[in-house]
Amino acid sequence: MTKTGSMFFALLLPVLMPASGAAAAGAFTLEGFFAGKSKAVGSFSAINGVKRKFTVDLTGKWDGKTLTLREDFVFDDGTRDTKTWRFVKTGPASYSGTREDVIGQTEVTFQGNVARFNYLVYLDSARQANKVRFYDKMVLRSDGTVLNTALVTKFGLPVAKTVVEFER
After folding, report:
1. SS3 assignment, position 165
2. Fewest CB within a 10 Å sphere: which of 33, 87, 103, 166?
3. How far does Cα 25 stand from its chain's mean position?
4. Residue 97 and residue 134: Cα distance in Å, rounded?
5. DSSP for 87-102, written as a single string
6. How far, in Å, CA of 31 to CA of 148, rounded?
7. 3-state DSSP call for residue 148?
8. Closest by alpha carbon to 98, among 111, 109, 110, 83?
9. Calpha distance 55→90 (Å, rounded)
10. The model's pTM
11. What element of type H or E holds 29?
């Protein structure tokens, strides 16, 4: 191969790689990634200066229609919390989801390797206080991990963000 040909291939390779990775990731589904055991590390940062890091152990059970996803959180200050999502598959690329602290339900939609959903939640669910909306975007990456970024709003204004990296 000529020097020019090698250089062209080297420049073209990064353009081709994401396309093939995205095609392989086209089969991203909640049950495909989260059924069984997985784990995550994440952080929550608010505009009031609150910052919390956490780890999560996840256990997903798929019954052919519903994914029950238990999330066991451990925060950097030692606090523990457990949340359980129930996602019902409503179509080839869509789900309806509920969780004990979510107000109503969320609709999850997939497009290729990206899932998007938003939901209202009480940050202090025991007192039903501090209601905010999460706008989540989950991306299945070419290395097989999932990156979830969420913008948190209150009264339509951004107040926090969450970043979580999941791996099988």
Report:
1. strand
2. 103
3. 15
4. 13
5. EEEEETTEEEEEETTE
6. 16
7. strand
8. 83
9. 30
10. 0.82
11. none
